[in-house]
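Our consortium's second objective concerns turning raw sequence data into structural hypotheses that experimental partners can test. To show how far this objective has progressed, the report includes one record in full. It was chosen at random from the queue rather than selected for favorable results. The single chain below, 70 residues long, was entered without modification.
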Amino acid sequence: MIANLQDWEFAKEIIRKYDLARRSKEILISPVHGLDNLRQIAEEISRSQLPVRLNLQLHKYIWGADARGV
């Protein structure tokens, strides 16, 4: 889970260190739900040119953060 830009920087280091872009089929990055800086994180991910997909927790947007079993 990515909560801030420092988490994203750490994730990039791991992706590069272990050559995950080559070794894995997909790299999914999930931001913490309810971030104020989600747009900034999304823009940084896009700018990175890494083969990464932003993976939002859609169930929390649809049914709310407290819903269970959905």
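The partners drew two points from this record. The beta strands are 28-29, 53-54. The chain has a mean pLDDT of 93. Both points have been shared with the crystallography group to help prioritize constructs.
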